[in-house]
Structures are given as structure tokens and as C-alpha cells.
Prior knowledge:
Layout: E1 8-13, H1 19-31, E2 35-40, H2 50-57, H3 76-82, E3 85-91, H4 93-101, H5 107-114, E4 119-123, H6 127-131, H7 133-144, E5 148-149, E6 153-156, E7 162-166, H8 170-183, E8 191-196, E9 201-204, E10 207-209, H9 216-227, E11 231-236, E12 248-252, H10 256-266, E13 272-275, E14 282-284, E15 304-306, H11 310-317, E16 323-330, H12 334-344, E17 349-354, E18 366-367, E19 369-373, E20 378-380, E21 384-385, H13 386-400
Parallel strand pairs: 1-2, 1-3, 3-4, 4-5, 8-11, 8-13, 11-12, 13-16, 16-17
Antiparallel strand pairs: 6-7, 9-10, 14-15, 17-19, 18-21, 19-20
Helix pairs in contact: 1-2, 1-8, 3-5, 4-7, 9-13
Bound molecules: cytidine-5'-triphosphate (CTP).
Residues 195, 256, 275, 277, 279, 281, 307, 309-311, 326-329, 341 line the site of cytidine-5'-triphosphate (CTP).
Amino acid sequence: MSILSGKHIILGICGGIAAYKSVSLLRLFIKAGAEVQVVITPAGKEFITPVTLSALSHKPVVSEFFTANTGEWHSHVDLGLWADCMVIAPATASTIGKMAHGIADNMLVTTYLSAKSPVFVAPAMDLDMMKHPSTQANLELLSSYGNYIIEPETGYLASGLEGKGRMEEPEKIVEYLEAYFSSRCDMEGKKVLITAGPTHEKIDPVRFIGNYSSGKMGYALAEECANRGAEVTLVSGPVNLRAENPAIRTVNVESAREMLSACQEVFPDVDVAVMCAAVADYAPAHPQDHKIKREHQDVPTIELIKNPDIAATLGKEKKQYQILVGFALETDNEFSNATEKLQRKNLDMIVLNSMRDKGAGFGTDTNKVSIFDRSGNRIDFPLKSKKDVATDIVNEIVSRL
Ligand code: CTP
């Protein structure tokens, strides 16, 4: 059975000669057991009729924002949520340009902008259009958004010329998707615990000690593990985020002590634990039940006590087969601090990010990390989106499972 069986695929078709190949692609998707919704641009309909496509996909083809005679609205937002992936084949230079720059003047581009799933783009055009710096720059932009470009082949083109621009063959596109989804199932059956966000340590009912952690890295890791088939428990400090994948169970906590007990409850059953939370090291020794008032007090002194070290506690409880991953956010002596933490907390891997690197650390959408393990291996990654950093980290975890 194909791994595409049961997958929801949006097949976007643009106006190019290669649109005839989309029919074969659609047939192959259906044969593999996928459910396909075709979205075609107005120009696409000049090359291939919606009747053929709806007969093969068993669904009305979507092209306009609404059906003219009934007024029925076609929600690109719902479609974007429904899809497990979106494949644009053929993708013309015009549509690639619109996608790159958010020019949402048709249903295909609005659907693309709403899609939360991975997007695969199979360009097809004449060789000079393909080579043009504008097309190349737009494709690079799409790659930078995390879209996958299925490179066109070199060969005979409809123009009569020969060169790079032939849309990849439908069988190859299907293989590409199958390889993508297979690699994404490498955490099937695994249980993962992830901590994320800051902790808030109560001073009084309206004040706390906290930090700038946004939780974005931990949530990206949770999504990555769940997308790859894992059952994830996300123990989250107070953040403005929500987990999307239904395989993620979120346990909301406030303080380090609450985070520790939530982690200890699930840790014995998990295969992997990733300590991504920025846990406050200290908490007020005597949190007040009533608001500390300004008038009646001298300047208060807040006595602090040490919080438990969650990673180190789990490091002591760890069984042979469990993988424990920590983070180290450092401002100086990055390498020695990270390796010292790896040993002290009995971690298997530590992910270092330095506050000195632009684009790394708290609150940003990007991160730049190095990964160290107990065998002394070190991998340095360039600056990437937190989503891509999550992919790199999970790849390293999977290779050690
Ligand atoms: N950590 C934890 N519990 C704590 C403190 C840290 O689980 N009370 C975890 C973090 O989630 C991270 C790793 O330990 O995975 C390192 O956190 P970091 O704050 O860099 O280290 P600390 O041990 O707090 O050391 P320091 O603040 O001195 O750098």
C-alpha cells in the first residue's frame, strides 16, 4: 500500500502545456489511495478541462472564489487546513512569481497562502524563462519559505527547443512525495516528551519572575515529532502558542515545580525527552497570597530559593534506551558551558544556541544551533527557521534511536 493512501492532496494546476501531464499525476494519486482536490488557475482551464479532472478526482474542480450561479463560496482557508500537502504541477513562471510575492488574485494562490501543509512545486516552462534571474530568484524565495522545488528535467520542450524546463514526470513526482512522507514517519510508535516556553515563578497574585522565552522552538519540535508519527506530550509554560497536530497532548504549567511533576509523570513511558523550556533557576521563597502594596511597605526584598533542575532530575531517572536532549542558551564560553551541561545533566545530546549569534535565541523565528553528543561529535548548522532547526534536531535524534 502506498504511503499516500488516505492523504489529502491539493493538486494545483497552472496554464502550461505540461498541464496534460497533471491528468496522469492525478490518476496516480487516486490509484495510490489519496483524496485529491484539484485547484486550477483560469489559464489552466485553457489547457485541460475541469470535466476530465473532476471525473478522475470524484470532486468538483475549484477554480473561482465562488460558484457564479449558486453563490457557493469556496473556502481556500478550509482547503488549506484540510490538506496534508499541496502539489503545484505544472507551476508556471507567473504562478511561481505570484506565490513568491503573495499576489493572491486567484484561487490557487490564495489556497497556497492559506496552506499549512508542505508545498511541492514542479515548475514547467521554456528554458530561457526557467533560466531568467527573476524565475530563479522567485524559486529561491519559495525554497526559503520551506517549499520543496521538484526540479524540472532537461529535454525536448514544447517550444521546439531543448533545455531545462520539462516538468518532472508524474511517476517521479509521486516517488518524490512517497519518499517525503516515508521519511516523515520515522518516529511512528515513539513517545516523546518536550518542555517548552518559560516558567513563571509567583511573587504575588499579579507578579512573577519569568524570562523572554516565546516557546517557538519547543512548539516547532513538538510539531516536527508529531508530523513524523510520534505521540507527543508537550509540557508548556505560559506562551501565546497552540499546538496544531492532534497527536500533541499539551499540559499547561506555570512554575518549574509544576513542570517537573508533569514531566516526571510521563517520563518513565517515553523514548525521547527534549528539554527545550527556559526554566527559571530561582523562585520566590515566600510567594504572597495578597498583592504586595506600595504604600504600606518598605522596598521589599524577595528571598529566592533554587528551582529543581528538571533535565538533571530526568537524567538521573533515565533508562538505557531513553534519549534525553537538552538545550544551552549561552552568552559566553558557549562550547565549554554546553559540554559541561551535557555531562552534569546526563544528557545524550545538547543543542547550543549563542545569544551572540544574530537571529538566534528568544522570541525570534530563526535559530542557529550546534549539536553535541556524548561521543564528542559536533555539528554546526547555519541560521535557519525554527521549523527547519526542529527538523535538523529530530533527524539527529532519530539517527540515535
Ligand atoms: N533546565 C531544566 N531545569 C532547570 C534549568 C534548566 O530542565 N531548572 C534545562 C533546560 O531546559 C535546558 C538545559 O537544562 O535543556 C540547560 O538550561 P540552561 O538554563 O542553559 O542551564 P542551567 O542549568 O540553568 O545553567 P545556567 O543558567 O547556569 O547557564
